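Here is a protein:
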Amino acid sequence: NWDSHSLNKPGTASGQLIGGNLAVLQALINTPYDVFKKGIILFIEDIGEPIYKVQRMLYQLKLSGILPSLKGLIVGQFTNYQPDANFADIETMISVLVSPYDFPVAFSAPIGHINNNIPLVIGSKITLSVTEKETSLLYKCKKRQCIDDFYVNFVS
């Protein structure tokens, strides 16, 4: 769980958790290592990317149909960037870009290139709950199921 952010879009969604560094994920689109599929809950973070480059990466996700098909979005920490002429911060830009969609969006997740990270199990099935007060993730797996499912679906 983590505290709410003023730009959060409340809601609840269940799906497979996929994500990581946005620049890396974007570079893998249409390769054998592309992790995007419809109906996922996506988490993103990055370091040292200017706002306009993050915006361009997200537009590629939008125009390729990935962004509109998400069940939820978790925005981690975007660090080491500067405001630009259009946006004071990356969170505002992302909020504007995803405003047409109905899925929940959680900002300020403690993930990324920061000291206090929470671990996320990529490939696991989760329920994302975004409220006025906090965001929570509930993992829907037993014992090693999440890890075994990830191995079968993404490694083999």
